[in-house]
């Protein structure tokens, strides 16, 4: 169906998307998941999320092979830009219904409670783009799920999904309601919790042998402040990435990718 009027109610999911930008820590989200770009939409189409609509310029939308039961709307680039509130270079968007966070017990156990597991635990990770980048690395580097403290950004927010290239839609996540006390749930499930810190008295990350610890959870804090002392104290191991002298730390997304690789 062709959209010529930017006020057409059929594309309400996509209207003025920048006005929907919210700071991290805002109340729980109820708006649809918004996915930008054909590569990310293709991942959405094979994810557990129910697609509500696809909207974009004709050539990009037609190349997606959208199922017949999904509403498809096309428009020229000017109408598209007027609806969403900015110029979209990726040519297509999709909206989907949200899913609730995963059950914590099921996520910790996994499909096979005896199988090796790798999780990423995020404390106060309040930057949506860092969260999306971590999710993309997590999927690429063998992480089985994300655990978020109550202050973390929304992993299903538009910018998180975009930076993750849609990979966050295939990564289960759960919320740890009591922080950092909930780390005991991980310990009870057999996980070695590894708190990443640049502190000089932390052990070298390369000394943590993943073959000796088939279930490992990497703790990562917000860009800048890092993990709180309380979170570090609650973890079983404090580990640092070995770096050249004079460099005190890495960005959290880069540090996460290195830790995920080291602990595979």
UniProtKB/TrEMBL annotation:
Gene Ontology biological process terms, A to Z: methylation; RNA processing
Q: Enumerate the transmembrane spans.
A: none
Q: Give me the ranges of the annotated region Disordered.
A: 1-31
Q: GO molecular function terms here? A: RNA binding; RNA methyltransferase activity
Compositional bias (Basic and acidic residues): 7-21
Key words, A-Z: Methyltransferase, Transferase
**Statement: the UniProt record of this protein carries the keyword Transferase:** yes
> Residue limits of the tRNA/rRNA methyltransferase SpoU type domain?
120-260
Q: Is this entry keyworded Methyltransferase? A: yes
User: What's the protein called, per UniProt?
Assistant: tRNA G18 (Ribose-2'-O)-methylase SpoU
Q: Provide the species name.
A: Blastococcus aurantiacus
